[in-house]
Structures are given as C-alpha cells and as structure tokens.
Model the fold of this input.
Amino acid sequence: MNKRIRILAAAVAVMMALSLAGCKGGITSAQGAKNSDTVQWFNNTYAILTTANGQDVTLVGGMKPGLTAKASAMVSLEESWDVTDKASADETIQWLIDEGGHRAVFAEEMLYLEELEITKMSDEEILEIMTDVFEMSSEEATPYLAAIKIYQKGGEKAIDAWDYCRAMSLLGWYYLAEYYTLEETLAKSLELGQAMQGMYSSWDEMVESYLDGYSYWAEEDPEDPESYTAQRRKIYEELKAAENSCFHVAWDTELKLEG
Done:
C-alpha cells in the first residue's frame, strides 16, 4: 500500500471513529487501569514523546483506544518502524532490547574512537580530527563531539534508556493498533520496567540517558537551545513542575499488575 493510500485509509478510519462516537458506552479496561501507579509508571517512561505528540500521558499509548487511535497507531508504526502486524511488532521489540538497538551501534562507534584515543582528546582536538582526518564538515563533526562527550560522561551504556523508553512507547502503540492485547502490552511493560528500575535510581537519571540517546540518534548538539533535544528536556521539566504531575509516581514504585 503506497503512502497516499495509507494516509487516506487513516483519514477514513478517523472519520468513521468520529461518526461512531457516543455509540458505545462504558469504560475500557485500559481506561480503568490508567489510575494504577504501575501503569502510570509505564506511561511516564514515554511521557515526553506523548506530550510532544499532543497526547494524554495518563492513557496507555497516549490515546483512548478505538478506531481513531488504531488508525493513527497503525500508520505511525508502519511509517516509522515498518511494523505492520504482531510478528513485525515482536521483531522490533527484540531488536531494541535483545539485539541492542541504537545503544549497540553507539557502543561500537565509541569503542572504535576510544581505540584511536580520540575520546581522550580535548574538544578542539576532536573537532580537528573529525574535520581534517575524517573529512567531515563542521556541521557533521559537532554531533560526533556531542556523542563523545556523552560517552565520556556515561560510558558505553550512556544511552540505554533511549531504546528502553522507545520500546515502552511501542508497546502502548501496539495495544492501540490491536497487534497486542492490553494484557500483553502490560506484561511486557512490567518486564522492561523492572529492568529499567535496576538500571537507574531516579526519573532524572533515566531521562538524562533517554535525552542523550535522542541527541545521538538525531545527530544534534544538545547544547543548542533550538535543538529538539532541548525542547524535549523542557517538556520533561514542565511535566515535573505541573500540578498533579504524572511524575508524582515515584521511580522506585513497586511495579505489579492486578489480577
């Protein structure tokens, strides 16, 4: 299916959803679960992205399940991740978590630069090496310097939260797209969430790793106040400062599922 047809199909699905609004009553199990501290904890791991997308951080996947959310999730998953069914959904989570995702690429690149002793150089020397030896433009060299500084600060595991948070957000979208049941999404979220609690000691520490990963992936200088990384940091600070902040749920909350 080409891109134009996919967009048209999504638009039709949205219109159908709007026309059916109010035809069904009641509260879905996902909405009922949204007040759980455990589920909110899961949602918080991708609350920055949810907010950037203009969606609701209290809902699994950021949207109320239904035809509108299903169409939106299906199009986004195919466009951004080549996920079109449960099999490809499983494969993507496996790549992100079991196969190392972007953090494996980051570690490989940084270890190579460390072997060349580039990671031990000053900022000026790094930029000179990148432009003169690797023949990069100054615009291309700056993100490499930023990545090296991330590595100097946190080592080869510096951006691990980037892959874990994206996996958590994907699980929410899988539920909305109906590739996973709510139970499957929450069970896998529990597994990843507990792993993340063993990796970090606070929301701030996790978010720092996530933002470092974002800037590496986006090839940005996080010091640039106009960068998307800076915008996402601002979103996090605003979420934390908000009245009834979603981050009232403590990082070390005991994660458990009812029933």
About this structure: DSSP finds 13 helices and no strands in the chain. The CA atoms of residues 150 and 212 lie 7 Å apart. Residues 1-32 have pLDDT under 50 and may be disordered. The first helix runs from residue 3 to 20.
